[in-house]
Amino acid sequence: MTTTSAETIVRPARAKTAANSATVRRKQGFQHGGWFVAPFLALFAVFIVWPLLRGLYLSFTDANISGEGAHFIGLDNYREALQDPLMWDALGHSAYFTLLVVPCITVLAFLLAMLAHHIERGKWLWRLCFFLPFLLPSTVAANLWQWLFNPGSGMINHVFGIETPWLSDKSYAMLAVVITTLWWTVGFSFLLYLAALQGIPAHLYEAAKLDGANAWHRTVHITLPMLRNITGLVVALQILASLQVFDQAVVMQDFGPGPEDSTRTFVQYTLEQGFTSYRVGYASAISIIFFVLIAAVALARMWLLRNREEGGR
Predict the structure, then answer these.
(1) pLDDT at 50 exceeding the cut of 60
(2) Residue (of 239, 236, 243) closest to 308 by Cα position
(3) Contact by Cβ (8 Å): 116, 186
(4) Which of 143, 190, 283, 289 could form a disulfide with 273 if both were Cys (CB 3.0 to 4.6 A apart)?
(5) Alpha carbons 145 and 140: distance in angstroms, whole number
């Protein structure tokens, strides 16, 4: 009885002591780790949080580019934005660009990664060629393809024997921007897929070969399921990046909105309102609407991923 009573007293005391020690270690770890993340948090607050809060405040005013004489006008900017046909057209152009780019770049990146992963000779050269365009600045890539699409001296029309006015016809202007973007940015998604392919265990393919599975079956039943998470990441990143398209569309059209405003994107329209029309308050309201849209897309991606992970358990 004495031994049992002693154990009954000592065990809770030891558990409490261990819990207190763990709590102390966590607090100490947070205190020491806080100094390492402090520079990042400071920069994040200065360049992300403060501009966001400042833009939110300006969206409720009629501020101009000078910042003087701003008056609080409530939700007037938001009401005007929701009834602005030019804003909706710009949003439609960004959405159309996204719908074209995301599926194409996902499939193309996967195919290039498969090629670079399975090729035997000159593997490093293929990887370099596929990734190298991504290292170019956006203005360089846009100017290069602006020259290639030139109807008079460009290589595209000359090689294919056509006379397509790529950059001066609204039917082809956005398509030219899409082609440029695919060539310029596919290297990033290609690198993600290539890294994921190298992480697939080789014994899975060996077992499938012993069972008589051909290359197509191995790709469909092993490669694609193993790349499901990386595919979701690529799609999410490309959607967020494509909705914010600006550089290549503007540079290829010599800083204009394109033929019949066909390449004016949402970001470009926001900048025009802020720095051309000097309506900073209205531009801030548009930016907040766009921020909410981007956040909704990101949250939807997280929700779908969480539901898929929970359903697979």
Answers:
(1) yes
(2) 236
(3) no
(4) 283
(5) 9
